[in-house]
């Protein structure tokens, strides 16, 4: 997200009005939305005029924009019927259209957050029905299957929707009233996905008959499908389907590989429904065609109390299952391995996943072909066409598909933050790990942490906003393994052959004097450039350069305080490339230092290191971010589209950089770096030693 500055911690000011504390008559709702709109516009004005005041994040702004436009469209329909006031309708349509454009330009809102779950009322209609089939999924061991949902509502409307609940007995969830004088709500857990009843059902509004095909993944529990009327804001529960379930809901699923702490260690992390009291987790593995070994796995989980706020603690909570990590050690460099996940039940029965394969990492400094994919902000979407989700991260499936299609030519993936945008709806983590399984089960999938994983007020995040939806980093650091000393802090180094990657965490303080700053300098300084010439810095928010429209309006072209302490390190340690996400588009600078292009080497960079090339590659999935229309001298190439970067190190002196669009996988920007060891050792713009007494 091309996000406005969030003033760290204490000086943040909230502009958001609690949506659900107000009345919901059409007129009251309209006034409410217009009030919020005025606030968000005020916030944007404040952004442009007073840098010391923390405004709404662009995330919030877009959230408001989409919510307002959605509600205004609904209200337009209601008021239009009731009042027949053409002028009013015209005004509302214009406002809705304007807001929708703003929303598309800026980002999106977690679709599940649009549902006022706790306002649900019972309106069961015996004449209505919902039927789901097949009853048992995954009979051939699949972890994903399509379900036919057929339904009928005698009083249909365009607001009707189907919610998918898991566990199927969603009314069994314990709903606690806020105080003793209140009744508990009918519902207190969000569905795991939803779709409007008239989606692909043209005659539904007249006949009340509809049919949806929904893709389910194995998420440890059974499913039911509920028909609601009243739209998302005033849900009325009309009918609930029969239950469907995977043959083994607890099955081990969605392995994700990650580099271990040493070069010859691969970690395998997966999810299951088996607690350690029920079964022993392990991995059976070995060289392809060779002997098989068993490696034990550790098990982690977390509970509702580990969440820092709503919705993660409330309607978004769903048990994450059990997260197992096994450490496959003493691997032979570049050798092919196969593995499968196992659980040994207490009666001796073994439960197996299907088999997977990977190639072990090269020895640090090894001269061989090495290819790495880098992107940020991908998120997830739904293959069943649930537009409500696909509008949230419209490029996610294309990016996943293009990387999967090229997986035989990829050695590692780095996803630098804003992983799945669960935003406190924990069911989404399973769905994201299912989406990336074809990639993460085959090559190391290294993640960084972004605002949507970590930020929450009062929890030590550098930015005191609510972008994590109450997750405060716990799901990200549990669901994925990173070779960090402290997985909660999320900064780490990892080597892949001739590459050294230093992955920072922008949601924790990185400024000089901090623990993270010391790590960054240690990571950059400790690499032997003769062995590992390609030194890469990565972080979620833009600490270097971005001509995103918001950063320009701030006058910073970066996250405030980003370059202040770090550009001296990048220069001193001759960092070749610095990558960022957060801004949902693509941009590459010239080799730049102190906002000046140091060398004209944008298409082919050879000879001594002069300055770092900065790359924003946050367009992997989420709604795109606008660039400034101003001409920025250091901005060499921009693309307002979804895409990702591929780095190919051919050897110690030749690196190919390619930017590919997610829509077709074609290369739209590229450049090469040719550099010998003596060129890396040579002086750069700020640290040339004096060569004569006269200088
Ligand atoms: Fe972000």
Helix segment tally: 14
Which small-molecule ligands are present, each listed once? fe (ii) ion
Structural class: alpha+beta
* Share of β-strand residues: 25-35%
How would you describe this structure to a colleague?
- By secondary structure, this protein is α+β, with helices and mostly antiparallel strands.
- It has 3 domains: 9-109, no CATH class; 117-246, Immunoglobulin-like, CATH 2.60.40; 364-681, 4-Layer Sandwich (Purple Acid Phosphatase, chain A, domain 2), CATH 3.60.21.
- The protein is 21% helix and 27% strand.
- It contains 14 helices and 32 strands.
- The strands form 6 sheets. Strands 21, 22, 23, 24, 25, 26, 28 and 29 form an 8-stranded mixed beta sheet that branches. The protein has a 7-stranded antiparallel beta sheet with strand order 11-12-15-14-13-16-17. A 7-stranded mixed beta sheet has the order 20-19-18-30-31-32-27, with no helix packed on it.
- A hairpin with a 4-residue loop joins strand 16 and strand 17 (350-359).
- Helix 1 packs antiparallel against helix 2 and helix 2 packs antiparallel against helix 3.
- 53% of the residues are buried.
- Residues 3-107 have low confidence and may be disordered.
- Bound molecules: fe (ii) ion.
- Fe (ii) ion is lined by residues 1, 418, 450-452, 540, 582.
């Amino acid at each position: 997200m091309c996000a406005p500055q969030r003033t760290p911690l204490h000086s943040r000011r909230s502009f958001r009005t609690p949506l659900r504390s107000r009345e919901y008559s059409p007129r009251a709702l309209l006034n409410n939305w217009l009030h919020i709109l005025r606030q968000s516009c005020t916030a944007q004005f404040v952004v442009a005029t007073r840098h010391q005041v923390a405004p709404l994040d662009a995330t919030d702004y877009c959230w408001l924009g989409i919510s307002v436009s959605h509600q205004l469209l609904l209200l337009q329909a209601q008021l239009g019927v009731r009042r027949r006031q053409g002028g009013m309708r015209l005004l509302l349509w214009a406002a809705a259209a304007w807001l929708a454009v703003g929303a598309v330009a800026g980002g999106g809102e977690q679709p599940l957050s649009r549902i006022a779950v706790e306002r649900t009322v019972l309106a069961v209609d015996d004449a209505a029905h919902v039927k789901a089939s097949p009853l048992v999924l995954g009979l051939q061991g699949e972890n994903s299957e399509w379900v036919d949902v057929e339904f009928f509502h005698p009083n249909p409307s365009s607001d009707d929707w189907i919610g998918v609940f898991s566990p199927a007995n969603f009314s069994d969830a314990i709903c606690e009233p806020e105080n003793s004088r209140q009744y508990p709500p009918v519902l207190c857990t969000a569905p795991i996905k939803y779709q409007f009843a008239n989606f692909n059902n043209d005659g539904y509004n007249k006949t009340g008959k509809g049919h949806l095909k929904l893709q389910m993944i194995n998420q440890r529990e059974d499913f039911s499908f509920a028909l609601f009327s009243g739209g998302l804001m005033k849900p009325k529960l009309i009918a609930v389907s029969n239950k469907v379930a995977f043959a083994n809901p607890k099955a081990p699923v969605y392995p994700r590989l990650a580099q271990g702490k040493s070069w010859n260690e691969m970690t395998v992390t997966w999810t299951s429904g088996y607690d350690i009291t029920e079964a022993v987790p392990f991995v059976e593995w070995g060289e392809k065609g060779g002997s098989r070994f068993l490696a034990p796995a550790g098990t982690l989980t977390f509970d509702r109390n580990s969440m820092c706020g709503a919705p993660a603690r409330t309607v978004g909570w769903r048990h994450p299952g059990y997260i197992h990590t096994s450490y496959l050690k003493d691997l032979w460099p570049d050798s092919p391995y196969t593995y499968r996940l196992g659980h040994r039940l207490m009666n001796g029965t073994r439960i197996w996943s299907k088999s997977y394969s990977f190639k072990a990492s090269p020895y640090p400094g090894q001269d061989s072909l090495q290819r790495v994919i880098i992107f940020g902000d991908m998120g997830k979407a739904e293959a069943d066409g649930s537009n409500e989700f696909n509008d949230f991260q419209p490029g996610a499936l294309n990016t996943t598909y293009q990387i999967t299609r090229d997986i035989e030519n990829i050695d590692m993936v780095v996803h630098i933050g804003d992983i799945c945008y669960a935003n406190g709806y924990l069911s989404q983590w399973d769905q994201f790990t299912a989406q990336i399984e074809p990639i993460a089960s085959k090559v190391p999938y290294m993640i960084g942490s972004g605002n949507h994983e970590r930020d929450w007020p009062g929890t030590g995040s550098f930015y005191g906003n609510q972008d994590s939806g109450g997750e405060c980093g716990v799901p990200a650091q549990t669901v994925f393994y990173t070779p960090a000393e402290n997985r909660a802090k999320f900064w780490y180094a990892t080597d892949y052959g001739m590459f050294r990657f230093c992955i920072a965490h922008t949601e924790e303080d990185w400024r000089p004097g901090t623990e993270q700053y010391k790590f960054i300098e240690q990571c950059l300084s400790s690499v032997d450039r003769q062995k590992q010439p390609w030194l890469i810095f990565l972080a979620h928010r833009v600490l270097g350069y971005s001509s995103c429209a918001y950063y320009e309006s701030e006058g910073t072209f970066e996250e405030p305080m980003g370059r202040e302490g770090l550009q001296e390190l990048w220069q001193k340690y001759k960092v070749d490339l610095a990558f960022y996400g957060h801004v949902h588009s693509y941009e590459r600078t010239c080799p730049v230092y102190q906002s000046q292009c140091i060398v004209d080497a944008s298409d082919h960079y050879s000879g001594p290191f002069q300055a770092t090339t900065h790359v924003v590659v946050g367009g992997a999935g989420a709604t795109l971010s606008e660039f400034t229309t101003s001409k920025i001298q250091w901005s060499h190439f921009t693309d307002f589209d979804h895409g990702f970067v591929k780095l190919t190190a051919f050897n110690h002196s030749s690196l190919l950089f390619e930017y590919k669009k997610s829509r077709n996988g074609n290369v739209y920007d590229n450049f090469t770096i040719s550099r010998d060891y003596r060129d890396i050792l040579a002086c750069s713009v700020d640290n040339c030693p004096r060569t004569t007494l006269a200088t």
